Structures are given as structure tokens and as C-alpha cells.
TrEMBL record:
It comes from the Bacteria. This is Arginine deiminase-related protein. NCBIfam families: citrull_CtlX (NF046062). PANTHER family: AMIDINOTRANSFERASE. InterPro entries: Amdntrnsf_FN0238 (IPR014541). It holds the Pfam family DDAH_eukar.
Amino acid sequence: MKQVTNSVLMIRPVAFRMNEQTTANNHFQKELNGILPAAINAKAQQEFDALVNQLESVGINVVVVEDTLETDTPDSVFPNNWISFHENGDVVMYPMFAENRRVERREDILDILEEKGFVIENVVDFTSAEEDGVFLEGTGSLVLDRANVIAYCALSPRSDEELFIEFCEDFDYAPVLFEAFHTVDGKKDLIYHTNVMMSIGDHFAIICADMIADKKERKMVLDNLRESGKELILISEKQVTQFAGNVLELSGANDKRFIVMSTTAFESLNATQKSQLEKHGSILSANLQTIETCGGGSARCMIAEIFLPKD
């Protein structure tokens, strides 16, 4: 299976703001005071459009779908939490922690993809788990090594162990489960999404190993990554707060590789880390300050990779 794709889905926000329902366990979100909601959304749209333009300019195929005002969906810019696409034609729908995020799931997006020639064979729907208060937020919760069929998951209120194992059984992924902690107001708390502290490319893995407190778990995760042939790029907890783990490798024209991240993430990296990454692709960075500040997510969260076959 391929680890890297040339096609992605992105949702253009129309009502972006800090989502009051997600602040309970996403400690990366902050209020932007003194700015009207319309101005915050306008800034988020500018950042979104600029990132789309950058991706398209290097030959990445971006399917942009406009969010709708009918639903109040402040986090719609992060579609990777509710949907994932797979090479066998499967589409997976995931259960979401915040009630107002559940209305981000839109059937019409599947129709749009089919109109563009993508083949959908089957929809696997885990969303009924919401009734039991159980969540698994897509490729926020799951960091997939698709090529080696290994799924990594940091347990949290948004990433349930049993549901993770069920996903792995259904898709024949080997599960690698662990707990990752970050410091919030002087206390250690579980990180809300795995993809904030780790990213897996074709031949590299970015990870904040220091967040995995249990030494056996840390060794298990790092051993799995090394045995899968990944060059380890270790980042600090401070760099995680600057979204240096929220990174995605994509392929552009002529299969040229790009490592997509925010300007904040890029500026947090030291020279050694940059040169390590640049062996694997050109770094493409975009200013996502408003989206990062209010949304608590960055470049990787904004992109749902499309691995579906084409007709």
C-alpha cells in the first residue's frame, strides 16, 4: 500500500471560530480577543486559500468543498477527524467527541468525490459508538503507517482503546497503543490527538518520544518505527505546542515529495531537523496562525488524504 498520495480533500470554512465544545481536552486552542467572529473567519479563509494555492502550485490535486452555513461547524476545516479514504475503495466515518463536530459529516462529499472519478466501494461507519460516549477521531487519533500496515494511537478521551482495536481488526492493521502526556497548567494530561505529537512519512517519522512516559511503551513505539525503516526525527514538547508534529508528506507533480506544515512549525525546527526532513522532500510551509490559535490544529489536521482508486 502507498503511504503518500497526490490527492486530498479540504473543507473551506464559513463559520470558523474557537469551538467551545472542544476546549475541554484540546489545550492548544486559545481565544482571540478583540476580533469579531466574522474577521476571525475571514482570516481563516485567507490562510486556507493560501495553503490550497501552495499545494496546487506544486501539482497536488486538492478537492475543495465549501462548508455550509446551515450547520454551525466551527471546526469543519479539520475533515481528517471524521473521514478517511483507503486504497481498496473503503471510506471510514468516525465518532466525534464534540456534538457540534458530528454535523461536519456530509454524505454529499462522497458524491462530489465520485463525480471527480474516485471509486467508493464501501462505507465503514463507526459513528454509532457516539451513543456510548466512545470516540475515535479519524487520522487525528490514528497515525497510519499504510505501507507497513501499522496503526499508532495515543489513548485519550477522543481515542478509545476498544474502538482502535476494532478498526485494526477490520482493516488488518497491527495496533501500536500508548499513552502520551503533555504539560497543562503545571500538570500532566493526555494529549488529545496522536497526530499532534507524531507524523509518519514514507521513509521518516517525526515524534516527540519524551511525551511517552512509560519507558516500555516508548521503546515499543520507537522500535516499531525503526523496524519499519523510518528515519526518526525527534522533536521536543515545546515544538509539539508549535505544531511541529502536525505534518504531512504529499506527492506533487512527477511524484516530487513535499512535507507540508505551518510556518509556526517550520520556524520551531532547528537546522538539523530541517536538514533531516529535506532529505525526504521539499518543506512547504504556510501561515496558519488564526487556524492554529483558535482551532488547536494545524496543516495535517486540515488535510484528508484521498487514497481511493480512480475509475
